[in-house]
Amino acid sequence: MESSTVPMVGRAGEQAELAAFVTATAGRALVLRGETGVGKTSLLGHAVALAEREGHAVVRAAGVEAESALPYAGLHQLLHPLLGEVARLDDGTRAAFDAVFGRTEEEPPSVMRLGIAVLGLLSLAAARRPLLVVLDDGQWVDDASADVCGFVGRRLAGSPVRLLIAVRSDTASRFDTAALPERSVAALGTEDAALLLDRRYPRLGRQVRRTVLEQARGNPLALLELPAQLGDRADGRADDRAVDALVGEHGVPLPRRLQQLYGARIAALGERVRAELLLGALDGVATVPTGGPFGARYRMRDADEAVAAGLLDVEPGTGDLTFRHPLVRSGVVRMATADQRRSAHLALALVHREHLERRATHLAAATVDPDEEVAAILEAAAGSATRRGGALTAVAWLTRAAELSEDDSGRSRRLADAAFVAGHAGRLGQAQRLVVSASAPGRAAPPAAVLASAYQAFYQDGEVRSTGRQVTAAIEQLRDAGSGGSDEVLARLVTLLLAISQYAGERPAWERAHALLASLGDRVTGRTRIHGAAWSDVVRHGTGCAAAVERATADLPVLEPWEVTRLAVSAYHLDLLGQYRPHLRRVVDRELETGAVASGMVMLHLIMLDQLAVGEWDSAEATGQRVLDLAEDHGHALFAAQSRAYLAQLAALRGQLARARDLRAEVDAWARPRGVGFLTQLADAAGATAALSAGDHEAAYLYAIGITPPGTFRRYTYQASRTLLDLVEAALHTGRVEQARAHALAARDAGLPELSPRLALVTYGALAMTAESEPEAAEMFARAVAHPDAARFPFELARIRLAHGIRVRHVSGRVTAQHHLVPAAEAFERLGAAGWAERARAELRAAGAVPRASTPRPVPLTWQERRIADLAAGGLTNKEIGTRMHLSPRTVSSHLYRVFPKLGITTRAALRDALSRTEAVAPV
């Protein structure tokens, strides 16, 4: 950092780029990256001066290390001068800011929604004159704020807003992967370094000058500060011992030497001034915002001695004292004793007593001995952070709360809670270490530790048998002990048991779980009872659940992320998920970054399932691949297998039979030995769909009756009702008319039409397919297509139209049949359901109509897809392609399976011809 009183030297290239940046007609972002003291802040100041001369508005902020764990603290500081404009925004945008900055209890929005809101606010603020937003020390900005800044920075084109950010090159930050344009700020060249030194110290002796230039190595801050370390003699010569000391530290990193230089000045200050500086250093000093959810920073006062020593600057507009450089701030903290730091933190906790998260931060550092009151405050702050998308911060606070607990039970409970949150945040290794810490040697693990340990074993390894026994025993232990401070652990154990039972997918597990729930009486919440009914056996326990789920969703904004996903799972089983998908989208990206990544993956699974249901199959494939990649990255083998099962079903629907069979086999091989019935049912359902798509109705029937026998819906079998049409259609096509009819009647008698809109549609469709008279068939078909939600399920509706059209052709003639067959064929074409589309076209031809030629719209390949396709067409294996492109064979295979439908082919052998037809289409 160069002094503001010294003209900038040797920065012609940087100044020219900043001038072009500030005066450009279009908005953009730029990151300045360089080592400590290289002059980034001076360049920011130069840009600000240019902007002000051009008549631009300027907003400045700086990252603060003390706030780097507080979600959205950086964003609040950055936007604070503009928050007066929020009232002019629409209700939805205002709600996003109100949720983030603590004005309401609404759940904070996703990065995308909040980023759009920030873009709207910046554009509004820049309506009268262009706006320059400057962020210094970006490496200290909290992750949530940095993600929003990155989102905004990538979307400023066409706006009158510029975003300029400075970050240290030697400190990792979120901006390292923000994909924003960058300018590297290097050290000064030899001539420029000498010029800067001579301007600031014109009377410096030759020996000192040579030593400083050699040691500073072109770093402007070092050039301006090192001479003071070498003495201040009238003849311009240096103290020999100081020179020897400086030269002797040649191997010490320059930032550390500069910190030591500042340390000498700090040590010379009076005790009262050092204490004042320590308060400012630990709280981040006062820059811009006051009030709000994070409170005002501490304002240093009566520190003229530090100003005179060159350690503090005075802000011209406000008179606030600020540290001249972050190294001064870190030096103040480093030189203070442990007792001094604790006293300062305690004083700051009192300053921020109205602001939970900042108060918790200081109390955590101020407290040494166990203190239950402080532990409770940290626990409350962890809950607040979790709801705001800061699960990783919550883990740290819960761990510290455990250390400060006054008894073993509190310590174990909080450590286990930290492990539970860490598991949801995708930190399974950290969760395991916390579980070990929560269990006292030689004693049975407390229920809270069982919760965290079982959670990890279940989601990481798919272990349903042993975890079910462990969780059941822990629930019984809490039940027998009676209520008393453990209801939250009990509720989480019960929910985990329900999840384990759901994935086990077998009657004995669910009957034990329901019996245990009944024994708990009023200690089981209404929401948990909804989960137990909807997740287990919707055919027998789903009556009335839909209304209860809709009532419970009124609490979505204040629920923890894992509670949101559990309620959404219930909505999925009741085919109500579509109305909650926007909420899941708002929170999923936030949770995948610093929050509950496991909940984020569940949300992505649910989003994919809804995309499948409504016919958004391209989006569903992208979502499925995304969650598969996340699950593999975070070691969630259960979620990875589940993602493959859903992708297998999608491939089967599209007629990608080889891929469907490969994925189905992989899921089955992983899940069946572990007893994960939920996934083996999914695998069988994908097998049935693939067989139907291929016209192999015998194989489809065998897969379908493996899930449930005809004429009944096997208890606690998730796919039993969902494969209703598969079993009926396969039975009819293989001459098993009685079995098909029995199954359709069983659906009617079980009350499936009252449980969900989708089940109503497929039940009436099955009754129409198996009707014993034409009036009955017409009535049931009319009920199906007239259902108010029928259009929400285009694939099932098209199957019902196709089956009815075939029946009508045989009974009422070809012309009447066309009224049903044409919309069925068009729907299958739109969806990309290749096997069914071909069948519908064949039926249209049989009905005397000429089906419209199938002309699939060419979908451009990405550059990577095109390259992989070219190599595959040239005869290379997946392994050989992966070696060339630095990809795994599995990734190559996934890309090829996405390429085939884009090119309108189903085999590798057809690649060369398909690519030759698309030569005119440039890859994107």
From TrEMBL:
SUPFAM superfamilies: C-terminal effector domain of the bipartite response regulators, P-loop containing nucleoside triphosphate hydrolases. Pfam families: AAA_16, GerE. Keywords: ATP-binding, Nucleotide-binding. PROSITE patterns: HTH_LUXR_1, HTH_LUXR_2. CDD domains: LuxR_C_like. Transmembrane segments: none annotated. InterPro entries: AAA_16, P-loop_NTPase, Sig_transdc_resp-reg_C-effctor, Tscrpt_reg_LuxR_C, WH-like_DNA-bd_sf. GO terms for molecular function: ATP binding. Residues 854-919 form the HTH luxR-type domain. It comes from Kitasatospora misakiensis. Signal peptide: none annotated. The keyword ATP-binding applies. This is ATP-binding protein.
